[in-house]
Amino acid sequence: MSSSSSTAQPEPVEFLLLGSGWTSQFLLPLLSSQQISHAYTSRSPSSSPNSIQFEFDPEAREEDQRAAFARLPKARTIVIIFPLRGEGPTKTLVRGYEGVHGPGGRWIQLGSTGIWDGGRSSSTASPAAEKPPPFRWINRNSPPNPTNPRFQAEQELLSLEKTEACVLNLAGLHGGARVVRNFLVKVAPTKEALAGKRSVHFVHGQDVARAVVLLHRDFTSGERWILTDTQVYDWWSLHRTLLSPISADDPARLWVPELMYEHGVRALPRSAEELGRALDGSAFWSRMREGPTVVRVD
Predict the structure, then answer these.
(1) Are strands 137-138 and 278-279 parallel, antiparallel or unpaired?
(2) How many angstroms separate the first and last alpha carbons of the chain?
(3) Torsion angle of alpha carbons 82, 86, 89, 92, nearest 10°?
(4) Residue 108 forms beta bridges with which residues?
(5) Which residue of 25, 204, 206, 254 is surrounded by the most CB atoms within 10 Å?
(6) 248 vs 137, higher pLDDT
């Protein structure tokens, strides 16, 4: 389905992706390879097959919203890729789409594990801290931060009556141009910054795409899932392995050994208890009787 100014009703599809962005480089090829009919939206005009120009504005007039939703096809599964924040926009999106295409679609919201701590998929402690923070496992049933705007939007989706919906809270994304080595240089440019870095969690774009298709085939309405590669990474260990080799005259070569000595760490990676926080992403893969295909970062 190509973008067009035509007002003709688009043909129904199995998948509708609201937004494309980084995730689409993995999800679109998977849908095509499995011959699953699909369409995706883009804010800019595109000549790409299956692309539809669409921009969601929760503040737009009702008639303008209805015209925008009419350009979209009816779909069995609708994936919300662009972020929604706070209460209101999610209900406007779902009810507006259903007002044009009718109920019966199943909704998947791609969210972030940051709803549990307000940040990204990593934990940080004060470099001066003598002890790690109290250890805790975070699983899909752990209470998120209720003031987090993305959690509020996700919860609104799960709470909509007569709507099948679920949420995938994604750990740190990598794959394609998103290279963990580059993240490391940004989050720990100094020894002092690295000292405060503890645990971090990732999931590859290939497995995000697989998870979405798995949900399409075995939908779990009303559920919230954490998606990781089921590993807990230590930023110090990643610094040693991903930035190697470091030239002999680069002070960063000694940051990790010095930190280990200063903090009494005997071996890497540090244990989950030493890292202070761990995400449990096992429930989703167990439910689907599957596992991640990319099981380590590089």
Answers:
(1) parallel
(2) 36
(3) 130
(4) 79, 166
(5) 204
(6) 137
**pTM, two decimal places:** 0.91
Which CA distances in Å does 90 have to 83, 101, 171, 297?
Answer: 10, 16, 22, 33
- Residue 204: how many CA atoms within 13 Å on its side-chain side? 16
Contact indicator for 195, 248 with CB cutoff of 8 Å = no
Summarize pLDDT for 187-236 with one digit per residue, the tens.
999 999 999 999 999 999 999 999 999 999 999 999 999 999 999 999 99
- Read off the amino acid at residue 140: R
Structure tokens at 62: 């009702």
**Regarding beta strands 202-204 and 106-112, do their DSSP bridges make them parallel or antiparallel, or are they unpaired?**
unpaired
* pLDDT confidence of residue 110: 97
Question: Which of 120-129, 162-171, 222-231, 240-249 is the least confident region?
Answer: 120-129
pLDDT confidence of residue 8: 67
pLDDT at 127: 47
Across 107-128, average pLDDT: 72
Q: Burial code of 22-50, b = ≥16 C-beta within 10 A, e = fewer?
A: bbbebbbebbeeeebbbbbbbeeebeeeb
- Conformation bin of residue 63: beta by default, left when phi > 0, alpha when psi is -120 to 50: alpha
* C-alpha 50: how far from chain center: 23
Euclidean distance between CA atoms 180 and 140, whole angstroms: 24
